Amino acid sequence: MKKGKVDALLGIVFGDEGKGKVVDCFTPRYDVVARFAGGPNAGHTIIFEGKKFVLRSIPSGIFDEGKLNIIGNGCVIAPDLFMQEAQELEAAGYDLKSRLHISKRAHLILPTHRVLDRAYEAAKGKNKVGTTGKGIGPTYSEKASRTGLRVGDILADFQQKYATLKARHMQVLQDLHYTDFDITEEEKLWMQGIEYMREFQLTDTEIELGKALAEGKNVLAEGAQGTMLDIDHGTYPFVSSSNTVSGGVCTGLGVAPNSIGEVFGIFKAYSTRVGSGPFPVELFDETGDKIREIGHEYGAVTGRNRRCGWLDLVALKYAIMINGVTQLIMMKSDVLDTFDTIRVCVAYQKDGVTTTDMPYDTEGWQAVYEDLPGWKTDLTQMTSEAQFPQQLKDYITYIEKATSTPITIVSVGPDRAQTIERMALDFRL
Ligand code: IMP
Questions:
Q1: Is the Cβ atom of 42 under 6 angstroms away from ligand 1?
Q2: Does residue 76's CB lie within 6 angstroms of at least one atom of ligand 1?
Q3: Which pLDDT score, from 0 to 100, does residue 44 have?
């Protein structure tokens, strides 16, 4: 039997590209949808049939009956937030317990990890990362230092393991003089979350995936955050704490590199970033405000204003290289409908030096732009590429040529229906 493949769908800039909607559209083509990195710092918004859902830890394939969804070993999970997210879906009529398996190797985010996240950020002062405050960094740090708790730990002697780790955290917090907090209520809810998680299938998901692939089943790996937030390849230290790139699919799910098929790179027709850190294309003027307003660019998890700017080809090309992107998906094209001119960053400049390669330290670089004419047309009702205005076609061709990668899907609005396939995608049909 022909072995199945793992296709990856990845945000390839700073996240928030709209992965949730695309995964949801793709799900019918796959047998399994799996999350491989990150945790409740993600917020995948899905809108269909007039209902809006924000998924944080749960894969976007959950709406599709008959699909297996997996939270892989590379993820971190907060039991209380997971319970809230899952119960909302259950209340909306989705049967999670039969369709969602959680890796025993995924790490648990404790309430004290969240306090540590805040404490470390406070200690950084002006250099703070601007984290989501969900305890992501401290949990992954603890994974690396081999002191963390994993989902499998809840199956035996859990209270004792929890108490030991919590005591260690409290000691660190005391050393940091960060003692003005009360997690009593949070902890109660968290423990309820632990009990709730016991009702799920906590499994060796890498083995399940291995068997599924051997049986010819296909898997969609749903990314979180984006390449520029990758712990190794992003704008360190202003990054998240996991490998968000395609390499992270292998380690975060336990699948072999030669099982990877298509790598879909998802980006917006412009750029956004939440949190601190270098962002050479950032616009501080009314154009940036206009993009934010039209694009509703406010964080799905934290509600923060997203920083906005034009498309950054330096970052895009770098991400395509790192991830081995085979197809690009351009989101939120309709946000640019009213602009006379659309700018594209083609290089960075600093101290008389111009580069088209992503520099080690992106701080202080200025964007060099090329200008293209806007299409000044409402794209939101369009249903096929044939209806696209010439300027949009030119914008697409410009990006394809610059990146040597085809754009196979163009999104023109938040609904599932506003997703236009440009060419017959012959994968997994
Ligand atoms: P953390 O992942 O909460 O530690 O945050 C680290 C950095 O990644 C911060 O700049 C966050 O704003 C950013 N970040 C984390 N998750 C997301 C996401 O899902 N979308 C966009 N940015 C994110």
A1: yes
A2: no
A3: 81
- Which residue is associated with the tokens 């000044």? 376
What is the structure's pLDDT at 53?
A: 84
How far apart (Å, rounded) are the C-alpha atoms in residues 81 and 190?
8
| Pair 10, 265: CB distance under 8 Å | yes
Q: What confidence score (pLDDT) does residue 429 get?
A: 45
Structure tokens given for 268: 């917006």
| Separation in Å, CA 11 to CA 47, 176, 226 | 18, 35, 4
Which of 7, 24, 31, 44 is catalytic? The answer is 44
pLDDT at residue 84 greater than cutoff 90: yes
* Number of the ligand 1 atom closest to the C-alpha atom of 131: 5
User: Other CB atoms closer than 10 Å to residue 184's CB: what's the count?
Assistant: 7
How far does the centroid of ligand 1 lie from the alpha carbon of residue 249, in Å?
18
The residue nearest atom 9 of ligand 1, judged by CA position, is 131
For 193-216, the pLDDT digits (tens) are: 999 999 999 999 999 999 999 999
Catalytic residue check, 169: no
**Among 230, 274, 307, 331, residue to substitute to test ligand 1 (most atoms within 8 Å of Cβ):** 274
CA distances from 121 to 33, 166, 286, 421 (A): 33, 19, 30, 42
Pocket of ligand 1 contains residue 247 by CB under 6 Å = no
44 classed as catalytic: yes
**Burial, 52: exposed, middle or buried (Cβ in 10 Å; 0-12, 13-18, 19+)?**
exposed
Q: At what angle do helices 111-124 and 158-175 cross, to 10 degrees?
A: 20
Q: What is the pLDDT of residues 256-301, one digit of tens each?
A: 999 999 999 999 999 999 989 999 999 999 999 999 999 999 986 7
